[in-house]
Design goal:
With 273 residues, the protein is of the alpha/beta class. Helix content is 39%, strand content 13%. It has nine helices and nine strands. Helix 6 packs across helix 9.
C-alpha cells in the first residue's frame, strides 16, 4: 500500500510538472509571437530521453526562446547563476515560476549543484545550460566552460547543441537595465574559437556593436543539432570532457550563425557500445 501511494504521489508530481511546463511554453510562444515570431528547427530529432541543452547566450530572451521551442513533455529546467538570479528579492520566485530555473553557484559549492542537476535529469527533465557563463556583450560566441560536459558524463546524458539567433536584437543586454545573465560556467576551463552572430544580433539600437539598446520586434530562430555524447572513449575522462566541450561549441556556433557548412559527426557523435 505504501509503495502504491508513493507511486501515485510521484505520478501526480510528474503530471503537475508537465502541466506547468505546458503553461510556460504557451506563455513564451505567445510572447514571441507578438514580438516577431519564433522559428524552430530540429526539435523533432531530439533524443527520446532527457538531455542537456547547451546554447549560445546573448540575451535574457534566450531562455524564453528555448522553453518555447522545446516540447512541453520534456519539462525543461534552466541552470541560472545563483549570484544574480537567486540573491534575494523577487527574482528567485520569478525565475522559478516563469523559467523553472534552479541556482548554480559560479564559484564554490558547484559539486552540490551538479548533483542536483543530475537528479533533475534522472527525473526526466531536460536541463538547459549556457556554457559561456554570461551573456555576450559584443556578439561573439564566447568560450564554453566544461561543466555541462562533466554533468553529461556523470548523468550518462547527451549534450544537445542549440543555436539561437534574433534574441539579441529583440532584447539586447541592458535593454531593461539588467546586467546579469542566466549563464552557468560550471567550473574552470574553457573551449573556444571564432563564432560571431549576424549583424542583426550584434547591433544595438544606436547601430553600434554590443552595449545596451532598446528592445525591438524581430523574429527569433532556434536550431537544435545532433547530440554529442561524453562516453568512455579516452582512458582520461578529462580529455573526453575537453573534446566534447569543444565539439559542442563548434556545433552551437554553426547553428547560431546559420553556417552552410555541415557539422561533421565527430568521435563523440554516437554513444559507445
Amino acid at each position: 500500500m505504501t509503495g502504491a501511494l508513493a507511486h501515485g504521489a510521484a505520478a501526480a508530481r510528474a503530471a503537475g510538472a508537465a502541466g506547468t511546463a505546458w503553461a510556460r511554453r504557451v506563455l513564451w510562444r505567445a510572447v514571441l509571437s507578438l514580438t516577431g515570431g519564433l522559428r524552430v528547427h530540429g526539435a523533432a530529432e531530439l533524443p527520446p530521453g532527457p538531455c542537456l541543452i547547451v546554447a549560445n547566450h546573448s540575451s535574457h530572451a534566450d531562455t524564453a526562446a528555448l522553453i518555447a521551442a522545446l516540447p512541453a513533455w520534456r519539462r525543461p529546467v534552466v541552470a541560472a547563476a545563483a549570484d544574480y538570479w537567486f540573491r534575494g528579492g523577487f527574482r528567485p520566485a520569478i525565475c522559478r515560476a516563469l523559467c523553472a530555473a534552479f541556482p548554480v553557484r559560479r564559484s564554490g559549492g558547484g559539486s552540490a549543484d551538479l548533483a542536483a542537476a543530475t537528479r533533475l535529469l534522472a527525473a526526466g527533465h531536460d536541463v538547459i545550460v549556457f556554457p559561456e557563463g554570461t551573456r555576450s556583450r559584443d556578439g561573439q560566441i564566447g568560450d564554453f566552460r566544461r561543466g555541462a560536459a562533466r554533468l553529461a558524463a556523470a548523468a550518462g546524458a547527451p549534450l544537445v547543441p542549440a543555436g539561437i539567433s534574433g534574441t539579441r536584437a529583440l532584447l539586447p543586454p541592458g535593454g531593461f537595465g539588467w546586467t546579469g545573465g542566466f549563464g552557468w560556467t560550471g567550473g574552470p576551463g574553457r573551449a573556444g574559437g571564432a563564432g560571431r552572430l549576424s549583424s542583426a544580433d550584434r547591433l544595438d539600437s544606436s547601430g553600434g556593436l554590443g552595449g545596451a539598446g532598446r528592445p525591438r520586434r524581430g523574429a527569433v530562430t532556434v536550431r537544435f543539432g545532433a547530440p554529442v555524447f561524453v562516453g568512455p572513449v579516452f582512458a582520461d575522462l578529462a580529455a573526453a570532457v575537453d573534446d566534447a566541450t569543444a565539439e559542442a561549441r563548434e556545433r552551437v556556433v554553426a547553428l547560431a550563425t546559420g553556417s552552410p557548412r555541415e557539422v561533421k559527426p565527430g568521435i563523440h557523435s554516437a554513444p559507445t557500445p
